[in-house]
Amino acid sequence: MIDINYYSTMYRQNPSSEIIRIEAQLGNPQAECKGFGICTLDELDSNSWDDYRPYRIRRLKALLSWQEEHVHLVFPINGMLVPTRAHFFASGSFLIESETRFPAWLCDHWKVDSIIIPSGAYACQIREEAFEVDLPVLWQSKSVKTLADLKKAV
Question: Which of 96, 106, 109, 126 has the fewest CB atoms nearer than 10 Å to its CB?
Fold first, then answer.
């Protein structure tokens, strides 16, 4: 099972970045969560993370962090069903059919007004225990003017 300390040590270039545990629902928000993309993101506490068992093909756990101008997602293999791997990760890319807007709780957490991931096919790294994806971020903030300001705020 992948945990946050293992992830920070093995895969992160910047282990001081905050890592948020989430449950993701995959699918296109503009197609009633069908198709490809990120439909919803819900935060998991540490107990829920440890006890998480996937129950639907579109639901899986992930580690989320902000890295430079990208959102970094790690999808542990033990946090998804086998059909999830085959359907969403077999091609070596992670497809987002239409732009994804992150939820208000996450924008508030990172002190930005909006976080948008543009549509596209993004490279997916296959690790020993997880799939990793870096997604470019379009963000807006009234109070944060530069990326350096954002890093100070987080």
Answer: 126
The closest of 124, 118, 134, 71 to 93, measured between CA atoms, is: 124
Which residues are within 8 A (CB) of 16 and not within 5 positions of it... i.e. 6 or more apart? none
- pLDDT in 10s for each residue of the chain, 154 residues: 455 555 555 445 555 578 899 999 999 988 999 999 999 999 999 899 889 999 999 999 999 998 768 899 999 999 999 999 999 998 889 999 999 999 999 989 888 888 999 999 999 998 888 999 999 998 766 565 455 555 555 5
Q: Where are the domains of the chain?
A: 4-153
Instruction: Determine the residue type at 47.
Output: N
Query: Taking the model in full, what pTM does it have?
Result: 0.82
Closest by alpha carbon to 110, among 46, 24, 18?
Answer: 18
CB 24 within 8 A of CB 62: yes
Phi-psi region of 69 (alpha: psi -120 to 50; beta: other; left: phi over 0): alpha
* 3 state SS of 55: coil
> Distance (Å, rounded) from C-alpha 96 to C-alpha 120?
5
